[in-house]
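Q: Okay, next protein. This is Alpha/beta hydrolase from Kribbella sindirgiensis. I've checked the sequence twice, so it should be correct. Can you predict the 3D structure?
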Amino acid sequence: MKLLLVLALLGAPVPTPPEDPRIEWHRCQLNAADAEGAALDEAGAECGELKVPLDYGRPNGPQITIALSRLPATGERIGTMVLNDGGPGGPGLSMPLRLRTAMKAAGTRYDLIGMDPRFVGRSTPIDCKLPFAGWPWAGGADRSSFRRVDRQVADVAARCGAHAGGYLPYVNTRNTARDIDRVRIAVGEQKISYLGYSYGTYLGSVYVQMFPGRTDRVVLDGPLDPERYSAQLLRTVGPANEAALRAWASWAAARDATYRLGSTPARVMASVDRFLRVAATKGLRVGTYELDDGSVPLVLFGPLADDRDAARATYAGIVRTLLDATYGPVEPGPELGGFLEGLLTPASSQLASAQIAIICGDRAVPRDRQAYWRDIQTHRRAEPHFASLTRMISPCAYWPVQPQEPPTRIASAEPALIVAADGDPRTIYAYATALQKHLPNARMVTLKGARKHGIFGEYGNTCVDDKVIAYLLTDQLPTTQTC
């Protein structure tokens, strides 16, 4: 108030606060081809748009649109819960459908809010016009491959500067947290609950730090270490993924009659090593796609974060196809075909653009490309299958704008429930223990002996699910912390 008075006395224009945010709710289905909207409508959800500032430093300046869905409570209402599926840049509009089921008795007690974060999905989009998924990408088997992929990621940054440059300064997690608080105001809540997976745990941590006292119940599943979150986040996960690959090889060896990949874990691993060698020398032809040592490690990495039998069977089918491709062209199955379409065509350009822009907008990374090459070389022996991927240079090293704000320092007394698997290959268990130190009033539930990223409502572990649901119903953090 005193500052505004001084400005008025000096004759400077006094900024007016933005109007209270409003959401106009309506049906979700956009057209006959909109299956997501149809499913939301059938479940009784409603959709809406919220105008928020592009730049919160200019709250009355240009506005962008945030797309939302709401599945209203049908039981005795506890409050509103905002959901985030990770990414970064993952769309969330249909999350209420999945979480209402996962939450069981608690699911009908909340208005569940699905949200496409800024620049994602139905929200005001950005699109760098990428010819392929832009990140992560493997540096390959030798220096020439590294240089080729280095040029690719530099081109990704250049495309984003050319096609989305006006938005890039405003793509970051702190602004998404501000958007969430505008949602809170728009739905008329003093406090909101929050459930986030993977990157969503970082977003949730930033929200409770920036807006203390505005959360009720908070669940953070598959947590990130807020100090390590950046485009270099994967640098530390190579050993966990090597271990997950070896564990899968043991599983496949026990089923050699089905998958024909080798009757011992060593023979299965030899099959994997064979198609990696051929990819690095001649390449692999799978359907209409040409795979090389830049893309194959990502194919190997992507589906590895799930140790359930069905997921391992799918993974075995992918490995079998890649092994067959060492002898000549093959056709992909539906899972591999869909993965390759997203990886090697423009189909995922918008999704990949948002993901890259968010992570590059949050924290700067080193720009010395030779340091990345040396890091890969140092770790090839210990991480033979994934070092070239997890330690490779990213578009952030060439990003055309610097982060507009420093990273958020997480040191919050807000209570929360952290859920982690001790064998998670994507966000390793050390990240969970680090996050708990930043949130000292949080309680952590650890699922022992699982190599799965994302547990609650996904893994089928009754112990974890019951603890989360009890917390959501009672606001009492669990006393026992292992499952």
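A: Here is a summary of the prediction. The chain is about 40% helix and 10% strand. The longest helix spans residues 143-164.
Q: Noted. On to the next one.
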